[in-house]
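Lab meeting notes turned into a lecture example. A postdoc, R.K., suggested we walk through two folding results consecutively so the class can see how the record format repeats. The first protein's sequence and structure tokens come next.
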Amino acid sequence: KSKKNANETEADELVKAPHSFVIKRGRIGRKCAQLMMDVRKVMEPFTASNLKINKKNVIRDYVSVAGLLHVSHLLVFTQTTKAVYLRTCRLPQGPTLTFKILEFSLSQDLSPLVIMNGFSGDEQMQLKLMTSMWRNMFPSIDVNKVNLNSIRRCILLNYNQENKLIDFRHYAIRVKPVGLSRTVRKLVTSKKIPDLGKLKSVDEVIDKEACFTESEGEGDEVDESRQITLPQNISSRGNMVNEKSSIRLVEIGPRMKLELVKVEEGLMGGEVIYHSLIKKTKAEVKAMKQKRQQKIRLKLSRKRQQEENIRRKQAKSKKFKVKSINKNNEDDGSKKAD
């Protein structure tokens, strides 16, 4: 019974976690397509990694199935002759943030830990929306209950207050034991057994450290600021609870430099509440709002007219069908009388 309850709790947590679709709209280049696939890897496991994109699909198609699949965010890549853009949308009703990708590099090749830097201290609306959008795109982590073995990757988002750009980095987390001699550490952590055929005893293994090689920056040579005392056992070799280990971040990509261009109130079509390139007066904003409301009213009027036309045609068809049935019955009756 306890196992059943645990499974139900886990399933409930998975359902409540933020899920995403990462798609493209229109034609994009080969490198941009690879960037889209790399971002899907970043968003794993709470994304559709093998989602097939059909040319006939529209945004409404993804929104219609999002609720059934518990999808909360939509990431859309587009490309023009001048730049690549990334739209991040909160489903089902927005808002939508449009970023211009100024620079990017592809991944060389695990849910990630999100680290945000520089997003505080500014009360601007667009910065609050950016913070909320990125933070809610990934599952929250309870530091008191988290299993350290489940944290294998981290995403760093650094916002530069001066140039208003965001640096996006994706790292793998490596944990290695410290406080051991180089030879012992290599014996403990190495996946390959070294060639010990020429040695006569274990003492020679300890003495002859030349049998082993070590990468720069590992073990005791790392800065003490990167050393921690583990509160849990780690599955990697040599890392044990209450023992010191070193933390290393290895960049695995993709890497992006983002600039917020536009914020829309709805889902890729609502009122523009922020634009980095276009500034409008209050009168212009009011006129645009009135024009949009008029367009919405016209759309609703057309929809009601279409529904009325459909009802009228259905009623006419039903009347004609009843008339045809009555006529057939009269013809059958006359034939029997004859």
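The second example is placed directly after the first for contrast:
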Amino acid sequence: MKKDSDKNILVTGGAGYIGSHTCKKLVENGYFPIIYDNFSTGNKWAVKWGYLEEGDILDLEKLINIIRKHKPSVVIHLAAKAYIGESINYPEKYFRNNVVGSINLLEAMKKTNTTKIVFSSSCATYGIPKDLPILESEDQVPISPYGTSKHVIEQIINSYSQSDNLNFINLRYFNAAGADLDCEIGEFHDPEPHLIPSIFEALLKNKEFVINGSDYRTYDGTCIRDFIHVEDLANAHVKSIDNLLKSRKNFSFNLGTGRGYSILEVIKEVEKITNRTLKIKISERRVGDPPKLFASGRLAKKELGWDPSHSDLNEILKTAWNWYLKINSTYIF
């Protein structure tokens, strides 16, 4: 572990998709990540940068011991259950893990006098927005237990900031996508719930790809989403740490591009990049899916100097495709 504890950053969920990319970016910027993960969804092969401490956020005593041991200057809190569909079927799992686990982390920080946190929130806290692109002032009315859990955690963090001198930045992600520009790490879930890798899987295995709903009030009937390159999300975490270490201001930021793409638009771009044709099956709408979600990232640009420079859809898909081909031709696990 690094002796200069001012550079130590505790990353809960650091073995996950966004967490592993964030750890690489932290190291590139002179920080030293302490990865805290129970590997329920994270991957041990993705722990390439930093120091690993295996553990669960539901284990308060272990959290306290890990924070005392490494003395991180900032905590990045990514550990969470994060599937909307699953949250509707198993809400108790999401409230226990996400909400209770976050309270444990905040209590561990309080007991160790650790006062700075970057929280991985979500666009799901907004539910069905009234205005687009979404601003941070938009009402948060989540429509899934997952979104509710993230909204509740934001409120809890705000309460701790008022009573315990906690300094925070909430990052409300939109749709994370793409892979490491050097193709060292990328997205891998089993089963895979996310749009882009699911399209790739259907293409390579010559299977039908199911679109959940084609009758939304959008220009082609399919849902519209704001896709953010995981490299840009990782960079936002570094910039948030830089901000917290020099300022006492608390913020909530949308991490979006201000532009949405429909499911059919993504499919057409994938077909162009791969030179393959996807078999499509239209199914019923999925509960908890808003028709349109895309956000303004202007506040993050103003306060953090954040720029989603890799979030062009073509670049997202090319890096994701390169990674998907790699993991399907090389045994990396």
